[in-house]
Amino acid sequence: MQMCHVLQYLCDCQVRHRIEAVVAFSDDFVACLQDSQRFRYNEVMLALNMSAALTAKKTKEFRSPPQEQRTETGRFIELTSKTSDRPSRKSPLRSQVTLQQAGGGG
Question: Is 62 a member of any domain?
Fold first, then answer.
């Protein structure tokens, strides 16, 4: 019976550690996404030579509901991780997700 209690305690510790790792990863990842989004928004706002229609099209991501923003950000990360002709600010984000899903993050 004591062995069962010890095993249960060890499993609880492992689960707690995994949950803490996921929470820490999520916090860092969301901060990176927000920085990336802020950078893109500032780029659009600083481009003075854009027409109103083009500005509206480029800022649609920032005016969308959270669910749609998540989907668009995921697509944007996917697209930029596939392009190798120029360095991307999104590639490290994709790498972080891949690493976390593989169990190596945290």
Answer: yes
